[in-house]
Amino acid sequence: MRKNILLSLLLINVAALNAMDKKIALIGEYNPDLLSHQTTNAAIEHSNKSIGTNIKSQWIATHDISIPLLKEYSGIWIAPGSCYKNIDKTLMAIKYAREHNIPCLGTCGGFQQIIIEYARNVLGHHDAQHEEYDPCSSNLFISSLSCSLTGKELNLTFVPESKVATFYNSHQATENSYCSFGINPKVIQLFKQGPLEIVGADSDNEIRAVEIKSHPFFIGTLFVPQNKSTQTNPHALITAFLKVITETTL
């Protein structure tokens, strides 16, 4: 029993040491009155405490993004909330994370921007657009949902053996959503042509989570997992995000 306790303490200390000086860039226009921004900050602290790390986080307004700045961070979280004031720089941050194996999480609006970046830079649809920003585009990859998810609770199913299912340690979950936009049904078939996989759906079989399995952590969720995190029950996906950051050598 004593040996197990000592081993656990040792593992926690090693995790804390590995996390020293590591920071998460929270990409978005920070609004202290926005619930999802409050819970983003809180969820990181919940997970830090649960695994004995002290990974810092810092909000970066989209117009301030640059590659030299991103190099200072060990993880990138494309935060919820719209509108992003500089879409091009937001997509640049996602591309940087994807191409350089930087752990990256996108929730709600962050999920949507992950889809746009992937469509443009991997699938080759350089004019891929988001309906909120360009409603007249003829190549919408993100469009208005037929039924808004704002304030709704989703019953989710995850693909077995996906990273998301592994992190949840379950094929099912219930999460909150605040989104009015999602993947345009007309382009879903295109996502079977590359490494970004559809790994989560709701009870209506609508896409709610994507990931790149070969990447250390590149996950987008149309739901907002941080809103379910508490001190006594840190969210599994956020905790996994921090753990991967501690294990990633940059």
Q: Please bin the fraction of helical residues.
A: 25-40%
DSSP strand content? 15-25%
- CATH topological fold name: Rossmann fold
Number of helices: 7
Describe it:
By secondary structure, this protein is of the alpha/beta class. It has one domain (2-247): Rossmann fold, CATH 3.40.50. Helices cover 33% and strands 23% of the residues. Strands 2-1-3-4-12-11-10-7-8 form a nine-stranded mixed β-sheet, with helices on both faces. It has a three-stranded mixed β-sheet with strand order 5-6-9, with helices on one face. A hairpin with a 5-residue loop joins strand 11 (207-212) and strand 12. Helix 2 (35-51) crosses helix 7 (236-247). The longest helix is centred in the N-terminal third of the chain and has 17 residues, at 2-18. The termini are far apart.
Salient structural properties:
250 residues, Rossmann fold, 33% helix, nine-stranded mixed β-sheet, alpha/beta, 7 helices
Helix/strand layout:
Blueprint: H1 2-18, E1 23-27, H2 35-51, E2 56-60, H3 67-70, E3 75-78, H4 87-99, E4 104-107, H5 109-121, E5 129-130, E6 140-144, E7 152-158, H6 163-168, E8 172-177, E9 181-183, E10 196-202, E11 207-212, E12 218-221, H7 236-247
Parallel strand pairs: 1-2, 1-3, 3-4, 4-12, 5-6
Antiparallel strand pairs: 6-9, 7-8, 7-10, 10-11, 11-12
